[in-house]
Amino acid sequence: xxxxxxxxxxxxxxxxxxxxxxxxxxxxxxxxxxxxxxxxxxxxxxxxxxxxxxxxxxxxxxxxxxxxxxxxxxxxxxxxxxxxxxxxxxxxxxxxxxxxxxxxxxxxxxxxxxxxxxxxxxxxxxxxxxxxxxxxxxxxxxxxxxxxxxxxxxxxxxxxxxxxxxxxxxxxxxxxxxxxxxxxxxxxxxxxxxxxxxxxxxxxxxxxxxxxxxxxxxxxxxxxxxxxxxxxxxxxxxxxxxxxxxxxxxxxxxxxxxxxxxxxxxxxxxxxxxxxxxxxxxxxxxxxxxxxxxxxxxxxxxxxxxxxxxxxxxxxxxxxxxxxxxxxxxxxxxxxxxxxxxxxxxxxxxxxxxxxxxxxxxxxxxxxxxxxxxxxxxxxxxxxxxxxxxxxxxxxxxxxxxxxxxxxxxxxxxxxxxxxxxxxxxxxxxxxxxxxxxxxxxxxxxxxxxxxxxxxxxxxxxxxxxxxxxxxxxxxxxxxxxxxxxxxxxxxxxxxxxxxxxxxxxxxxxxxxxxxxxxxxxxxxxxxxxxxxxxxxxxxxxxxxxxxxxxxxxxxxx
Length: 558
Description:
Blueprint: E1 2-6, H1 9-22, E2 27-32, E3 38-39, H2 44-48, E4 59-61, H3 63-70, E5 73-76, E6 78-84, E7 89-94, E8 100-104, E9 107-110, E10 114-116, H4 133-143, E11 148-152, H5 156-167, E12 171-176, H6 187-199, E13 203-206, E14 210-213, E15 217-220, E16 225-227, E17 230-233, E18 237-239, H7 242-246, E19 270-272, E20 279-280, E21 287-288, H8 293-307, E22 321-325, E23 328-334, H9 337-342, E24 348-352, E25 367-373, E26 380-387, H10 391-403, H11 428-440, E27 446-447, H12 452-457, E28 461-464, H13 468-473, E29 480-481, E30 499-502, H14 507-517, E31 523-526, H15 529-534
Parallel strand pairs: 1-2, 1-9, 2-5, 9-19, 11-12, 11-17, 12-13, 27-31, 28-29, 28-30, 30-31
Antiparallel strand pairs: 3-4, 6-7, 7-8, 10-18, 14-15, 15-16, 20-21, 22-23, 23-26, 24-25, 25-26
Helix pairs in contact: 1-8
C-alpha cells in the first residue's frame, strides 16, 4: 500500500512516523514544498532574536535521517498542485525547476498547514512573514543592520517577534487594529501585558489600522507615520485548503477542510490533519479553526492509527495556549468572557491574584487568574492567567479538569503537589474551587469591574475594607474606608442601602461581605478587588497595580 502525505512538520511527520511504527511494509511518501520537512516552527521567532543562536537547532530531522530510521521516502521542494480523486493521483511539481510528475496513492493524508494573511494594503507585499525556515532566513537577513521595525498584528507570532526584535536592538512598533493584543484573553487580563510591552520600549499602537507600507515607513489611519526598515505581517493565518477545494473536497465556511471524527475528508481515501482542518469546539461542538502544534501532532498520529485499523477518534479542542512576553506568561484555555457574552451564554467570572508559591519563600511572584463557570451546571467554561512563573501549570491543570469533566467546585479537592518552592498548601487552582463553592452555595455575591460604575450610579455605596494606608495610596474613587479589622465596631457608621465591598484582591472583601450579611446588610464583593479593577482597559497610566499583602492572596475563598 502506498500512502502519500502532503506536508511535513507537525501533522505530516507525526502521521508518517506513526504509520511506519504500525506498518513496516507500507510505502510512505512525504511531499514538502519547502526545503525542510521537520523543523521547530514555534522556535522561529527566538532564532530571529538570537535567543536560539544556532539555526541548526531548529532542524529536527532531514530526509536522509528519516529515510535511515523510518524508511520514509521524503521529497522536499515538491508541491502537490492537483489532485485527481477518481484516479487517485497527484500532480507534483518540483519547485526549483517546475518539472511535473504524476504520483499515485492508495491513501492520501493532507497536512498542508496554514498560510499567513496579508492585509489588502498598498505596499504590504514588502512585509515579511514567519512560517518556515526560509522565512526565518529572510527575516534574519533583513534585520541585520536595521534600526527600526513595525510588526503588524498582536497575536502569538506578532508579540513574540516584537519581543525578539527588541532583543536584537531594534526600535519596534507593534500595530494592532483592535483595542488589545492577544485576542484569547479578556481586556482586564491583557492590560498588564500592554504595560510590560511599553515598559520594554515597544511602541504599542492599539486600535490602529495600517493604511500603507512605504519604502521605509508604515502609515496608520490616524495619520501617523512609523519608521520601518523592516515590516513583518503577523495578522493571522488561514487554512491552506487550496488543493482540497480544487479537488472538490468539502470545506467549511472559514476555509478549513471538513473531516469526521476519524479525520477522513468527504473522500474516504483522503485524510486531513493539522492547521488546514476544521476542529470541533469542546464546549459547544461548533466548527473551530485552531492552529496549535500539539493538536496537529495528535491528529497526525490519530490518522495513522485509523489507517492502520485501530479504533480511535479525534478529540474536541479547547484552544489551550501559552506565550511569554518579556518575562510575563500569558495562558488560556476554553472560552473567554468576551466570547461567552457575544454568544449570550450565562456565566460567572472569578478573579484571583495569588502568588506562584508560598509568600514566605523568597522569589514569590504574583499572577492574575480568571475562571469562567456555567452558573447552572458548575461546568468550567474557560480560564486565563497572566503573571510570572507557574501560570502555565495552573492553566494546564484547569484544561485537564475540563477534559476530565470536573466541575469548578471540584477544583477545591484536587490533590496537587506542594512545596513552598513551587506552590501553596492551598494551590491557586484549589482556591478557585473554594471561591466557586462560595458562589454555588450562596455565601457570596460578586460584581465585576465593568459593572461597578453602574452599581454606584444606581445608589450603591463603595466600601474599601483595606487599611487606611492602602486606601490612600490606591483608591477607587468615591469609596469610603473602614478597614476589615474595625468593621464590626463601626457598623453604625455605614450609610443605608446596598454596599459594594472591595479590598486589594478579594479575600478581605469576602470576609467583610460575610460580616455585613449576618448583620442584615446587603453587600456584594467586587470580584478580584482593586487589582482587577485597576487592570481595566482605559485606566489612568499612573494607577498602580502593586500586589496585595499575603493575607489577601486567596481572594474570596474560605
